Records
---
Amino acid sequence: MTARWSVLGGSAAGGAHVRAGISGQDAYAVHEVDGTLLLVTADGAGSRRCAGTGASLVVTLAVQLLVPLLGDRPLTSAAAWSGWLDLVGERLFRRFRRAARALARAVGGIEPDDLATTVTVVVARPPWVAVLAVGDGLVVVRAAGGHLDLLLAPPGGADRQPGATTLLPNARAGEQARRLVARLPDLTGLAVCTDGLDSLLVEYDGSRPRQPGAAVFAQLFTLVDGAETDPSTLVRLLNGRRVSSLTDDDRTLLLAVPR
């Protein structure tokens, strides 16, 4: 079936990881099923030994769980989407906890918490957009006329203090997960990123996220608005000197527009 979305995705390791000669600890996936778009990002906790493995694991599990469910049944109301997100979250978090325990036993010398990670799951089936997130992901939506909204804002204020966020596989992560459903009939674009980019993409009022940066998103969406997109363009941008000089963290960005 012909794709109904144009999508660009890319990831770059942060400076500390590059200097240490190790790979980044972010992971992401993009899938489209009959016009429904699935975007998943994860950011492994930098203080944990197997954080990159944890990020890759939760993204893989999310794809395995959600792709068969995307065409499972019609979801035509906010209540139906909310119930679906509750079901998906319960299953995904339980599967990750089990997989983390099994991996820790198989490897030996590590604990499940050594795979600690965030996860952000976005499902777009116009006019609906549903978000399930543990941790500090960011989701921006663009409407007709270029209007931007922070659908999922990074935590602000006290929530930005180190250790304030409970991550997977902690059993309490499900209680703290954010679940959002929006009906957006004039949706013209989506952006999902890990927290390595939030200081570049979001305007803050002190420590509180205020709004997406209009100028930077206008430039970013031009990369994917055209009929033909170069998959390497976004990766080069994320690895470029300018972005690297502004953030030392791993960074992942997904951009999508409906055709």
---
Amino acid sequence: MDDTTDRIEQHLTTLFRRVQKIHVFTSHGEFALDRSGYGLLCRIADEGPQRLGSFATAFGLDPSTITRQVQALERAGLAERQPDPDDRRAALLSLTDEGRTAVLETRAHRRRRLEQVLADWSPEDRRDFARLVAQFNESTDRLISAEHAADS
């Protein structure tokens, strides 16, 4: 490993801590979502209702962990299971009206905070950062998919 990789790893560690702080500080109002619940709700909002197994695959978590997280969202009235029209034996998790509101309000609040963080960045730096974060996420997904395929 070279010095650049070392620096990236150190900065990622700091970034993860900062992101956690942003999440804690942006849980507000009547929607105090934990990080995992927020992630599940955002995935549904972005991609539509899904089977629980798709969450386990997407987040690299054990299905029992996803089940517990989903149950918490259902108890809070933010998500609900409905029969899968393609396979009545399966269920799809979808947002309730309250869940949709929670995602919209929490995202708006988080994005306002992000605007504050990036206030002194140039538009070019913002575009570069967005591109590089997306590239990093795509590379990470490819690696995880390859490792998952090798384990199967």
